[in-house]
Amino acid sequence: MPICIECRYPVKTLWTQYSGAGDKSSGHNIRLTVCKNCGCFCDKYVEHDFVVLFIDLVLIKPQVYRHLLYNTLMKEDDKLDTSMPRLGLLLLLFDVYLTWARVEKQTDSAPVSDKGTALSDFAQQPIVSQYLFFLILCGLSSLAFHLCIRFLSTSRLSPLVAIKLLPCYTRPNSVSTALLVSSSTKLFPILMVIWQYDVPAAARSLGWAVVANNVEALRILLDCGYGVAALLTTIGAVGRWIVGRSVLWLVELQGLDSMGEASIAADGKALWAFVMYVREWAGQLVAG
Predict the structure, then answer these.
(1) Total-model pTM
(2) 144 touches 240 (CB < 8 A)
């Protein structure tokens, strides 16, 4: 049953369709339903396009998550929406691109050592082999992230369920849908087609943005607090890190991530400078 995205009150319909709604010359002829509980439109996003939805997703507005998770993508039998596998594949390909670009940047700056030699030897492998490796690496890492959170939130064997910290959620596919939708921020690297920027810093900045969106999506879907949602996201991230490190260890590239950890402070400063620039630009825009 759909809900009001403002107060979560259950409603029968989100809009009323009048005769002639299919005639473009007569307009949409659709009237949004007003919630009896809060007096607002039950779902204003019914009339908004994808661009507005994406912007509000980036801004982490809870209303857009309720629209997507409850009123659009959630199925009665907990089947995945047909758009979710395509979105998951797209996010995986972007993740592969960012990971590959970061590795190439680190390979170019690697010092002459056993670690640098291993990276150089890996860079000499055929392009297809490198791509398949990063595809497997990112695929297994993402799978571990989803499985960890699905187990903790939907299994009766979950320790969080056992200690009554989280009620057992009975729709595991909806959990994956929430994680995929909230990870749409990963699509931002498409801007690299226009602007060139530091790949490692961009990857970490996007990582923090995706984490914030994951926490909000899980909080709304599971109806839990921020603490529990952050705990779920953290455990999923740890599982993803362990799987990723294990794959790197198997191919003797276990030092890959540690090479980039030294620049976290510099990336943090760069991110803060970018935030301050955006704030200043927004202030000038409002003043003008």
Answers:
(1) 0.79
(2) yes
Strands (E), the chain: 15-17, 30-32
| Residues 127, 194: Cα–Cα separation, whole Å | 24
Express each pLDDT in 148-166 by its tens digit. 999 999 999 999 999 998 9
Enter the tokens of residue 248: 């790197």
- Do 61 and 213 contact (CB within 8 A), yes or no? no
Tell me how far apart the alpha carbons of residues 94 and 88 are, in angstroms, rounded to a whole number. Answer: 10
For residue 220, the number of C-alpha atoms closer than 13 Å in the C-beta half-sphere is 29
Q: Measured in Å, how far apart are the chain's first and last C-alpha atoms?
A: 45
Helix (H) or strand (E) holding 148: helix 127-154
Tell me which DSSP letter residue 171 carries: -
Q: What are the pLDDT digits (tens) for 261-275?
A: 333 444 444 445 544
Six-digit token pair at 191? 């801007």
Token pair, residue 95, equals 């993740």
Q: Which residue's entry shows tokens 């007003």? A: 34
Residue whose C-alpha is closest to residue 35's, from 9, 16, 61: 9
Cross-strand partners of 32: 15
Which residues face 3 on adjacent strands?
Answer: 10
Range 237-247 burial, b when 16+ CB lie within 10 A, else e: bebbeebbbeb
Contact 196, 249 (CB under 8 A): no
Nearest to 3 by CA among 221, 166, 216, 218: 221
Tally Cβ neighbours within 10 Å of residue 261.
Answer: 10
228's tokens: 């529990």
